[in-house]
Amino acid sequence: MTTTSTAPKIHPERQKRVQSALSIFSVSAWITGVFLILLVIRMVMEYVLNMAMPTWSTWVAILHGWAYMIYLLATLNLGLKARWKPAVWFTTAISGVVPFLSFIVEANRRREVKEKFRLV
């Protein structure tokens, strides 16, 4: 008696689309997380330690804002392709504004998506 796998087949084209979306999501999560850490350091230096900040340091906040917008689009893209539930979308999206959380959530989502879609 042989047992067959009850897991549904995943079309290779869908796997490619999900893999591409996952790659974009991972890169954007890391960039957003790094800029958020830099922003927190900058804010602590300016507001807690009362250090004078050079004018170029305002770019850290601007770049984090742009990176976060890209991160939100990448989250939307991956969420649509992976068919996430709204709670997963929300927790993934909000992780870009909590220091270090984007790294943790990115690793969890990457693991979940790779398992679900059998990606290498």
From TrEMBL:
GO terms for cellular component: plasma membrane. The chain crosses the membrane at residues 21-44, 56-80, 87-105. It is a multi-pass membrane protein. Residues 23-111 form the DUF3817 domain. Keywords: Cell membrane, Membrane, Transmembrane, Transmembrane helix. The keyword GTP-binding does not apply. The keyword Membrane applies. It is found in: Cell membrane. Its main location: membrane. It holds the Pfam family DUF3817. InterPro entries: DUF3817_TM. This is DUF3817 domain-containing protein. The lineage of its organism: Bacteria, Bacillati, Actinomycetota, Actinomycetes, Mycobacteriales.
